[in-house]
Design brief:
Layout (H helix, E strand, L loop, with lengths): L1 H21 L2 E5 L6 H16 L6 E4 L10 H6 L5 E5 L22 H20 L3 E8 L3 E5 L13 E4 L2 H9 L3 E4 L5 H6 L5 E5 H6 L8 E3 L7 E7 H6 L2 H35 L3 E3 L3 H22 L1 H12 L4
Parallel strand pairs: 1-2, 1-3, 6-7, 6-8, 9-11
Antiparallel strand pairs: 3-10, 4-10, 5-8, 5-9
Helix pairs in contact: 2-9, 4-11, 10-11
């Protein structure tokens, strides 16, 4: 009887251990499940589950359902989720090095954005590690372009226009260009355009499509002002607690997710530009009389950011500019 009871108890313990091992990881993001970022996360989760034979399952909690976007990093660090995705610029106050993404007019195309990430990544990884987090990968949103109700050939054409702003950097851009800053949060962009409250703004083609801005803003200039990136990370303690085979599977899946996500970002950018054109917007590259002054403005912003952040910023921008092909 004692032996039978012991066997039953041992079997129960084994079943409990297997159930605990099979408990899915929580992956928190503040973005929509339909976004290309979220689709990339789902592909990563499917890859990990397949590679581990179901030993490691990852559940996506989108739309801020587990934690609002601004609190995702805290949720992972505090153990409410094992993995998270957030926009890197949202972390700049806590880790200034993440703010390199928001320095405007220093990137001209996706290759520049990749070079910037190459130099930024080691410092970001170190800052995350200090907080008990491990960086898996980062993927940019499509670049920020210039919308306007009228043609813009040079910076002076923006003087006096009402420019949509949403943070300190965009306010400063408006002021330096002689435009009037108008604070408009993202959910109100479409209404602000329809009501004629803004004449111009800097945001992505994707945002323009989502807010159907073509009724009021007729011009889009592909200035690639900056490439804000989403970063995906895991709690270090949770990662180290995994069996080696599961850690390896997650690392391999993350290594594949980064280039796949960059390709998806470029595809989203192209598709959104096509959609703007289909609705009658004139989409074009900026004239040199506009792009050159904006790049000079970018150098000014970069120098100011280096002074603000300190030596770490030099570790990004010195090699970034020295590796430029132009």
């Amino acid at each position: 009887m004692f032996r039978r009871t012991w066997l039953l108890g041992a079997a129960g313990t084994l079943l409990h251990a297997r159930a605990a091992a099979a408990a899915p990881w929580k992956l928190a993001t503040g973005y929509r499940a339909e976004s290309f970022h979220a689709r990339n996360l789902l592909a990563l989760a499917q890859s990990v589950e397949a590679a581990t034979g179901g030993g490691l399952r990852i559940e996506l909690h989108a739309n801020g359902s587990l934690a609002p976007l601004a609190q995702v990093a805290d949720a992972v660090r505090e153990g409410r989720a094992e993995m998270g995705e957030t926009i890197m610029t949202g972390l700049a106050r806590a880790m200034p090095i993440a703010g390199a993404d928001a320095v405007p007019f220093i990137t001209r195309h996706y290759d520049d954005a990749r070079r910037l990430w190459t130099h930024q990544r080691p410092l970001v990884e170190r800052a995350f590690a200090e907080r008990g987090l491990r960086v898996l990968y980062a993927v940019p949103w499509p670049p920020q372009g210039l919308y306007s109700a009228r043609p813009i050939a040079a910076p002076q054409d923006l003087r006096g226009l009402r420019m949509r702003t949403y943070n300190a950097t965009t306010v400063r851009i408006a002021e330096l260009l002689g435009a009037t800053p108008v604070d408009v949060p993202m959910p109100e962009v479409g209404r602000a355009v329809a009501e004629g409250r803004i004449d111009t703004m800097i945001t992505s083609a994707v945002t323009g499509v989502e807010n159907r801005v073509w009724d009021g803003l007729k011009h889009f200039y592909d200035i690639n002002a900056w490439f804000p990136k989403n970063i995906v990370f895991v709690r270090e303690a949770a990662f180290l607690a995994l069996p080696a085979v599961q850690r390896d599977a997650l690392a391999v899946a993350a290594a594949a997710a980064e280039p796949r996500g960059w390709s998806a970002s470029q595809a989203a950018a192209r598709e959104s530009l096509d959609e703007l054109r289909r609705h009658g917007m004139k989409v074009e590259l900026p004239a040199a009389t506009l792009s050159t002054p904006l790049r000079r403005l970018g150098e000014r912003f970069a120098l100011e950011w280096i002074r603000e952040v300190g030596p770490q910023a030099n570790a990004i921008f010195i090699p970034y500019y020295s590796s430029s092909t132009t």
